[in-house]
Design brief:
By secondary structure, the protein is an alpha+beta fold. The protein has one domain: Aminoglycoside 3'-phosphotransferase, Chain: A, domain 2. The chain is built from eight helices and ten strands. The strands form three sheets. Strands 1-2-3-5-4 form a five-stranded antiparallel sheet. Helix 4 crosses helix 7. The longest helix is centred in the last third of the chain and has 21 residues. The chain is globular. The N and C termini lie far apart (51 Å).
């Protein structure tokens, strides 16, 4: 990495930090289990992923993937409908792949977390009680029995990179596990609901739109406290709180 002009902080909070040094990303995580999951998941995933350059705990070095993010939460996406469809097709390949050997949270785990986060939002006057109650009722629809598939687990739109109309890389695999396919589709389209039709065109049959919408409410409700406590703003236009308000 000689001749590097600067070190860029990509993201940093109490749990982990990611730095960019030239074309290398350095991920520093306090939880080495997350890093171990990320490395194994990338080796198993049937979609383009970053190349592991080296791993010396607590640092994981990854090569940059080509292309640009499919979009950003809170802003419009410049990607074409075909690129969104390609993202859907990539997610389908992942969901059709053999299961990883570890499990993600169960529906029961999700229900307990939902109750705790909703109580915190109301008790601390973070969000109006009627907004929380409306979305809580919707979110319960996500916590149904599901057939486990290989999920990315944190498939933010900014974690999918495209070059033209093709997926060139999917990053940040530390939450990968066995889980609900509709959760991945919901996280990918969170705040970009108009692109759901494009994603499903690429994904193919078997999607449950009601479950996807329920996961939009769930994901937003359980994310608000974490975002606030780690220095992020879920009230930015187009972000989690706007997603919740749209359900009203």
């Amino acid at each position: 990495m000689t001749g590097v002009d600067e070190v860029k902080v990509v993201i940093a909070h109490r749990e982990c930090a990611t730095l960019r040094v030239g074309d290398t990303f350095l991920k520093i995580d306090a939880d080495q289990q997350r890093t171990a999951v990320e490395v194994e998941a990338m080796a198993l995933a049937p979609v383009p992923t970053p190349r592991v350059l080296w791993h010396r705990p607590p640092v994981l070095a990854l090569a940059a993937v080509p292309g640009a993010p499919l979009g950003r939460l809170g802003g419009p996406s410049a990607a074409s409908p075909a690129a969104w469809a390609a993202a859907g097709a990539a997610v389908r390949r992942l969901h059709d792949a053999p299961l990883p050997p570890w499990h993600g949270p169960s529906a029961e785990d999700g229900a307990a977390r939902l109750e705790a986060e909703c109580a915190w939002l109301v008790d601390n006057d973070v969000l109006p009680a009627d907004l929380v109650a409306r979305n809580h009722g919707i979110a319960l629809g996500a916590l149904r029995p599901w057939r486990p598939v290989f999920v990315h687990g944190d498939l933010h739109v900014s974690h999918v990179f495209v070059t033209g109309d093709e997926v060139s890389g999917v990053i940040d695999w530390s939450e990968a596990a066995q889980g609900d396919a509709m959760f991945d589709l919901a996280v990918l389209t969170l705040g970009h609901e108009r692109h759901l039709v494009d994603v499903l065109a690429g994904y193919g049959t078997g999607a449950d739109v009601d479950a996807i919408r329920a996961w939009w409410s769930y994901r937003s409700l359980v994310a608000v406290r974490w975002l606030i406590e780690h220095g992020f703003d879920p009230a930015r236009p187009g972000c989690e709180i706007d997603v919740l308000r749209a359900r009203m």
